[in-house]
Design a protein that fits this description.
- The complex is a heterodimer of chains A (117) and B (110).
- Chain A is an all-beta fold and 117 residues long.
- Chain A has no helices and eleven strands.
- In chain A, strands 2, 4, 5, 6, 9, 10 and 11 form a seven-stranded mixed sheet that branches.
- In chain A, β5 and β6 form a beta hairpin.
- The mean pLDDT of chain A is 97.
- With 110 residues, chain B is an all-beta fold.
- In chain B, the strands form two sheets. In chain B, strands 1, 3, 4, 7, 8 and 9 form a six-stranded mixed sheet that branches. In chain B, strands 2-6-5 form a three-stranded antiparallel sheet, with no helix packed on it.
- Chain B is globular.
- In chain B, 36% of the residues are buried.
- Classes of the chains: A mainly beta (117), B mainly beta (110).
- Chains A and B meet through β5 and β10 of A and β3, β7 and β8 of B.
Chain lengths: 117, 110
């Protein structure tokens, strides 16, 4: 079964850091670009960041640029999102998403990040 | 990187059709034929319903269809059913690894 499982979310103070992890299974992870998409409580979907199949040329949305770093380890079928200088507006459910044919075909269930003092 | 514009709500009676618009720019929807639509039920992850403007993944009902004209894409849900009542989001490829989502539309079955 194709599956994406996020972890690493939790409560963090403003200005703090957190590392999210996405574990992939059921498909050849190294063949696919991967992305993070977030959804603040009661709000819509927001694109966060993406990384190519081999880890090159990452892309970041304007709201997280220079604060977040996306990476992947194809040997472990894992993707990561290192988040720094966290703000209240970063509080959201973070989804790990697989890209196929320039669409997001597989979504994880998400991991919640809460930013609060 | 502005969000694509969708109407906040749309509605229709059971059996009728509802069409949702998704307006972008010449840098996203107008530039690429890679528009997707996602359905999201409360508390659930989004589900891909339409990709490449009008293609359906395996298992998605043919009551869902998509189209595009210029900088605007459309999702039509025909033969509305109670289970269709939920939120829908469009997205568009916007170059390289860049994607942009729509603001979301809540569909109500009257």
């Amino acid at each position: 079964e194709v599956q994406l499982v996020e972890s690493g979310g939790g409560l963090v103070q403003p200005g703090g850091s957190l590392r999210l992890t996405c574990a992939a299974s059921g498909f050849t992870f190294s063949n696919y670009p991967m992305h993070w998409v977030r959804q603040a409580p009661g709000k819509g979907l927001e694109y966060v960041s993406g990384i190519s199949y081999n880890g090159g040329a990452p892309y970041y949305g304007n709201s997280v640029k220079d604060r977040f770093i996306i990476s992947r380890d194809n040997s472990k079928n894992m993707m990561y999102l290192q988040m720094g200088s966290l703000r209240a507006e970063d509080m959201a459910l973070y989804y790990c998403v697989r890209e196929s044919v320039l669409t997001f075909d597989i979504w994880g269930q998400g991991t919640m990040v809460t930013v609060s003092s | 990187q502005s969000a694509l514009t969708q109407p906040p709500s749309a509605s229709g009676s059971p059996g009728q059709s509802v069409t949702i618009s998704c307006t972008g720019t010449s840098s996203d929807i107008g530039a690429y034929n890679f528009v997707s639509w996602y359905q999201q039920h409360p508390g659930k992850a989004p589900k891909l319903m339409i990709y490449e403007i009008n293609k359906r993944p395996s298992g998605v009902s043919d009551r869902f269809s998509g189209s595009k004209s210029g900088n605007t894409a459309f999702l039509t849900v025909s033969g509305l059913q109670a289970e269709d009542e939920t939120d829908y989001y469009c997205s568009s490829h916007a170059g390289s690894l860049h994607y942009v989502f729509g603001t979301g539309t809540k569909v109500t079955v009257l």
